[in-house]
Amino acid sequence: MTEATRDSPDGAALAQAIKTWGQELGFQQLGIAATDLSVAAAHLAEWLRAGYHGEMHYMARHGTRRSRPAELVPGTRSVIMARMDYLPQTRTAMAAALRDPTGALISRYALGRDYHRLLRRRLQRLAERITAAIGPFGHRAFVDSAPVLEKPLAQHAGLGWIGKHTNLIDRRAGSWFFLGALYTDLALPPDTQARDHCGRCQACLRACPTGAIVAPYRLDARRCISYLTIEHPGPIPEPLRPLLGNHIYGCDDCQLVCPWNRFARLTAEPAFLPRHGLAAATLVELFAWDEATFLARTQGSALRRIGHERWLRNLAVALGNAPPGPAVTAALAARADHASPLVREHVGWARRHRPDDPQRF
């Protein structure tokens, strides 16, 4: 291919070649998106006005650069969107874990290695393949690393539609996948936008433990377990604590009940498989980790981003919701005088919340 390919009718051939190269590099699907995100920008503005972003102040920063790719990366004309599947367990195994109140529920995307670096490297390798074919071109790869509207872009690229739970869904692959974006100055023909296939289904709304999906396609992050256990820096609101159950990092409940996920396939990527026994770890076991152990066991993992203090905060809430037992009582008592006021407050709540703790009064 030549330099002229970018702006010639052969752009379709280049787009097809890019998709083939992407699959050879380990992506499950690629699509091309145009850069008009005006509809998504309006939805984002409405969501922000409602205050649904909570303390994720970065969602309100950057002005129009989030919805105008050419303002974020000057010269951007097309965005290559890539999908990589991460499902590490069968539906049966995940359902069994959800039924065990003594187990620590960690969102399945975080059980393996952190996906950000892996996807960025793959996108860069894709850019190198394109360069080898047509010569140098303007590009920049993003994986949750800049103000990028990944899901609307992925919908425009034909990778799926944004479901009622606000996750992206593909009819043939469900929703257990990561997204990466490669902004380019190439004039590639965009793919057909994916159509909505949620229909009248309300399964995700009914399944949300905290009622965070306040209406179809409308998520109040302030009530979302993923926000509360990962993004939220301070005390978890007391009325919501009993609703968290044994979730300690993120939540997959809305995905577990989505009918389209019956088509999801287990990941073939070794990096996304569970490490350190986290898929079957108990609350008591993880609450005993000191900071050194936490840092060692979460090296290269998305879990590390919350730090040891929030890790203990989340586990204290889960232990407060756990079934009665001497092991839980002893674990909470051992952290009652923790140096962190945040941890102490949540441990105190957990002990008051439990009927079997002698210190509850």
Q: How would you summarize the topology of this molecule?
A:
Elements (H helix, E strand, L loop, with lengths): L10 H14 L4 E5 L4 H12 L19 H4 L5 E8 L5 H9 L5 E2 L8 H20 L4 E4 L7 H7 L4 E2 L5 E2 L7 E8 L18 H5 L5 E3 L2 E2 L5 H7 L15 E3 L3 H4 L26 H5 L3 H7 L9 H15 L4 H9 L6 H13 L8
Parallel strand pairs: 3-10
Antiparallel strand pairs: 1-2, 2-7, 4-7, 5-6, 8-9
Helix pairs in contact: 12-14
3D structure, described in words:
Catalyzes the conversion of epoxyqueuosine (oQ) to queuosine (Q), which is a hypermodified base found in the wobble positions of tRNA(Asp), tRNA(Asn), tRNA(His) and tRNA(Tyr). Its main location: cytoplasm. Its EC number is 1.17.99.6. It is a single chain. The chain is α+β, with helices and mostly antiparallel strands and about 350 residues long. Among the domains are: about 5-85 and about 110-185, no CATH class; about 280-360, no CATH class. The protein has helices at about 10-25, 40-50, 70, 90-100, 115-135, 150-155, 205, 225-230, 255, 285, 290-295, 305-320, 325-335, 340-355, and strands at about 30-35, 80-85, 105, 140, 160, 170, 175-185, 215, 220, 245-250. It has a 4-stranded antiparallel beta sheet, with helices on both faces. A two-stranded parallel sheet has the order 3-10. A two-stranded antiparallel sheet has the order 5-6. A hairpin with a 5-residue loop joins strand 5 (about 160) and strand 6 (about 170). The protein is elongated and about 75 Å long. The termini are far apart. Residues about 1-5 have low confidence and may be disordered.
